[in-house]
Amino acid sequence: MVNSPAPPGPFDVDVVLDVVIRGSGDAGQVSEAAAVLAAAISSEFPAPVGTRSVMVRHGTSERVLRVAVPHTRYGQGRSVRIDVASRRVWAGRSPVELTRLEFDLLCFLTRRAGRVCGREELINEVWGLPDVKRGTGRGRTLDVHIRKLRTKLGAGSSLITTVRGVGYRLENDGRVRIEPA
């Protein structure tokens, strides 16, 4: 299955900030202050920073810095979008190739976001296997699939939390969205 790039969605839109620096007196000092601020912003956010000068009134100048902040900077990791009908997943705008079980596991966890899903519940519901018995190796299968899913989601891997001795929880922080089938 080949995923095409995701069309832009509300999760993928950068935040654009206009920072206004207004000063009276020497326009050169205002420009210098704007340059220092632009350099500081650029070191934190590697997005392009544009500036424009505006003469407000006699003796007062203004510099406006336009800063585009990528969505991965103001959230914890990339957003994940799941299209159930086409069985496609995107992390940010990048397509993510998942196996059938990885896709089913992600959907199952997403539909129960914020809730701990026990290991037995996951094996029963996603794999359709009977109860997990210690020492059967089926529990390791779940661990391997979770690890692969985290790796494939990249920066979004912090979405799935291990609850030691119980199971897994997909964080309910709005970063994952399921599109209706």
UniProtKB/TrEMBL annotation:
<dbReference type="GO" id="GO:0006355">
    <property type="term" value="P:regulation of DNA-templated transcription"/>
</dbReference>
<dbReference type="GO" id="GO:0000156">
    <property type="term" value="F:phosphorelay response regulator activity"/>
</dbReference>
<keyword id="KW-0902">Two-component regulatory system</keyword>
<protein>
    <submittedName>
        <fullName>Transcriptional regulatory protein, C terminal</fullName>
    </submittedName>
</protein>
<dbReference type="InterPro" id="IPR039420">
    <property type="entry name" value="WalR-like"/>
</dbReference>
<dbReference type="InterPro" id="IPR001867">
    <property type="entry name" value="OmpR/PhoB-type_DNA-bd"/>
</dbReference>
<dbReference type="InterPro" id="IPR036388">
    <property type="entry name" value="WH-like_DNA-bd_sf"/>
</dbReference>
<dbReference type="GO" id="GO:0000976">
    <property type="term" value="F:transcription cis-regulatory region binding"/>
</dbReference>
<keyword id="KW-0597">Phosphoprotein</keyword>
<dbReference type="GO" id="GO:0005829">
    <property type="term" value="C:cytosol"/>
</dbReference>
<keyword id="KW-0238">DNA-binding</keyword>
<keyword id="KW-0804">Transcription</keyword>
<keyword id="KW-0805">Transcription regulation</keyword>
<dbReference type="InterPro" id="IPR016032">
    <property type="entry name" value="Sig_transdc_resp-reg_C-effctor"/>
</dbReference>
<dbReference type="GO" id="GO:0032993">
    <property type="term" value="C:protein-DNA complex"/>
</dbReference>
<dbReference type="Pfam" id="PF00486">
    <property type="entry name" value="Trans_reg_C"/>
</dbReference>
